[in-house]
Design a protein that fits this description.
alpha/beta; Rossmann fold; seven-stranded parallel sheet; binds NADP nicotinamide-adenine-dinucleotide phosphate; binds D-gluconic acid
Length: 267
């Protein structure tokens, strides 16, 4: 097989959750450029309708669903509708996620549970919905969008780090349990990416200076920049394509080197 064909997603059906904007949108766009048919979901009709226009402007005939990934019934209905109208799902990207930046002692358990439900439990729900079809066809790709917080902690993100650490291990477990059916489940661990989720960390200060956290990330990243959703397009196509058929249970960190670097020395 020619190497360009190994990276092709021609005629594949891809579902990217939470792909109304941000990282999910960029991944879905990359899949479409590689030949896949795109389905995506989010909770807000406004977000979905705006996203459909944005996909159309890029020549992508995406199918959008209003579906909360924590709701098993909504997920089952969405997956069944995609299978009926687009074909069985070949590629699932568990991308939908939220973060709440609250010191642990100030975080109530319901807030903690909500983050874990969306950032971890939903990947269990989504994967359970698509795995039977993948098993039947002896072929499938699941990509879980993990995080640097799958490896590191920091103040105020206890729920998020717990969820993303769990998502790393769920990735490895799906790979272990279903690898025999030619199903590959891997993760992508983005570093700090400029999206609405991280906008508060990059807000310009009243005196016009960069946000302290923004400066901190720049000092900790060898690439000396924030990532962009576009930085994730190539790695996602790799993990969604036949080029990665013998890669399973791995987390591919797309982080500009931040996890490898102790940080810029003072002076
Ligand atoms: P974002 O800009 O906040 O977008 C999140 C998307 O998920 C939105 O489309 C949102 O749409 C959807 N969503 C949230 N909860 C949902 C639910 N319960 N059901 C369905 N859709 C839901 O986030 P992002 O920065 O693109 O991040 C995407 C993923 O990458 C997340 O898992 C995040 O944890 C992870 N990540 C981000 C970074 C980063 O630096 N940005 C780094 C590492 C990992 P609705 O609100 O309309 O539902
Ligand atoms: C934060 C950020 C991070 C990024 C990402 C890093 O508050 O520290 O939001 O969590 O979103 O997960 O990989």
């Amino acid at each position: 097989m020619e190497i360009k064909d190994r990276f092709s997603l021609e005629n594949k059906v891809a579902l990217v959750t939470g792909a109304a904007y941000g990282i999910g949108f960029a991944i879905a766009e990359a899949f479409a450029q590689a030949g896949a048919k795109i389905a995506f979901n989010c909770r807000s009709r406004e977000h979905m309708e705006t996203a459909l226009k944005n996909y159309a402007e890029k020549g992508i005939d995406a199918k959008g669903y209003i579906c909360d990934v924590t709701d098993e019934e909504q997920v089952r209905e969405m997956v069944a509708d995609i299978s009926e109208k687009m074909g069985e799902i070949d590629i699932l990207v568990n991308n939908a996620g939220i973060i709440r930046r609250i010191p642990m002692l100030e975080m109530d358990v319901e807030e903690f549970r909500k983050v874990v439900d969306i950032d971890l439990n939903s990947a269990f729900i989504m994967s359970k919905a698509v795995l039977p079809g993948m098993i039947k066809r002896r072929k499938g790709k699941i990509i879980n969008i993990c995080s640097m917080m799958s490896e590191l902690g920091r103040e105020t993100v206890s729920a998020y780090a717990a969820a993303k650490g769990g998502l790393k291990m769920l990735t490895r477990n799906i790979a272990s349990e279903y690898g025999a059916y030619n199903i590959q489940c891997n993760g992508i661990g983005p570093g700090y990416i400029a999206t609405p989720q991280t906008a508060p960390l990059r807000e310009c200060q009243p005196d016009g200076s960069r946000h302290p956290f923004d400066q901190f990330i720049i000092s900790k990243t060898p690439a000396e920049r924030w990532g962009t959703p576009e930085d994730l397009m190539g790695p996602a196509v790799f993990l969604a394509s036949e080029a990665s058929d013998f890669v399973n249970g791995q987390i591919l960190y797309v982080d500009g080197g931040i996890l490898a670097y102790i940080g810029k020395q003072p002076g």
